[in-house]
Write a structure and sequence with these properties.
Helix content is 4%, strand content 23%. With 281 residues, it is mainly beta. The protein has one domain (3-201): Nucleic acid-binding proteins (OB fold (Dihydrolipoamide Acetyltransferase, E2P)).
């Protein structure tokens, strides 16, 4: 994968870049593994907007990615590396020996023709293979990690990410997540070997509002440009500051930019060995 930069023939082109899709080997998705993706534009079942700045966007087919990968002890061959509009990383089309096809998240370095295997026991820890944490050598990078055995991968699923297995102790494995947090996860949970593909995804610059609208992202308006009835920062003459407030606020009046939003005393705190927040000296 690489980043393609065009000549600055317009204001939109001048600061934009695109993915060159050089790592894609198949451009049409597997029809049997796609469904129509219904858009909700940030609205709930009552039609009320609960997530702002969403709407529009191009039509997309949803690829049915297998996050569980529990077809154990059956070798699969990689048929193609594909683009998925619903996620940042690439996906791989695989076919098992019995002819069943499936989509999985593609790690960096996986190529067409490679063999992958998924197992509930000890197997060779090769790129793309999936096995329980207790059988993975300490120090390897992993992705698509389960939080609950059998539930399927829930964390480390974005482009270029990889967590590191740093230790095994008792019934738990210690995993260093991309955020820097070190967390205990049951050693029966499954994880895949490697780091996810498309690591340069964050270098793409969209350059103009139109490309963001194609992604379904609507424009944002600063709170200080609104009226007092619409935002805590609103009002004043011209582009005024937020006024005599202790700090920035969201449109709903809650503290923003810096306040910790994780619930104090959450049940899963006991699994966090080291927080991702830096310790202040």
């Amino acid at each position: 994968m690489g980043i393609k930069i065009y000549k600055p023939t317009s204001d939109g082109r001048r600061k934009s870049s695109v993915d060159d899709f050089s790592d894609i080997t198949k451009f049409e998705p597997e029809k049997s593994l796609t469904i129509n993706l219904q858009k909700h534009s940030g609205r709930n079942n009552q039609g009320i907007i609960t997530v702002r700045h969403q709407g529009g966007g191009v039509k997309q087919l949803y690829r049915l990615v297998d996050f569980r990968q529990n077809k154990f002890n059956s070798e699969a061959e990689v048929l193609a590396i594909e683009y998925d509009p619903n996620r940042s990383t690439r996906i791989a089309l695989i076919q098992y020996v019995d002819g069943v096809k499936s989509y999985i998240l593609a790690p960096a370095g996986l190529k067409v023709g490679d063999k992958v295997m998924f197992s509930g026991g000890p197997i060779e820890a090769k790129l793309g293979c999936r096995l329980p944490l207790e059988f993975i050598p300490v120090g390897l990078f992993i992705y698509n990690i389960e939080m609950t055995p059998g539930k399927g991968g829930q964390i480390v699923r974005s482009a270029g990410l990889g967590a590191q297995l740093v230790g095994l102790e008792g019934n738990y494995a210690q995993v260093k997540l991309p955020s820097g947090e070190i967390r205990s996860i049951l050693k029966e949970c499954l994880a895949s070997i490697g780091m996810l593909s498309n690591p340069e995804h964050n270098l793409v610059r969209y350059g103009k509002a139109g490309r963001m609208r194609h992604r379904g992202v609507k424009p944002r308006v600063k709170g200080k440009n609104m009226n007092p009835v619409d935002h805590p920062h609103g009002g004043g003459e011209g582009h005024s500051p937020i006024g005599q407030k202790r700090g920035p606020r969201t449109i709903y009046g809650r503290t923003a930019l810096g306040e910790r939003t994780r619930k104090p005393g959450k049940y899963s705190d006991k699994f966090i060995i080291q927080s991702r927040r830096k310790v202040e000296k």
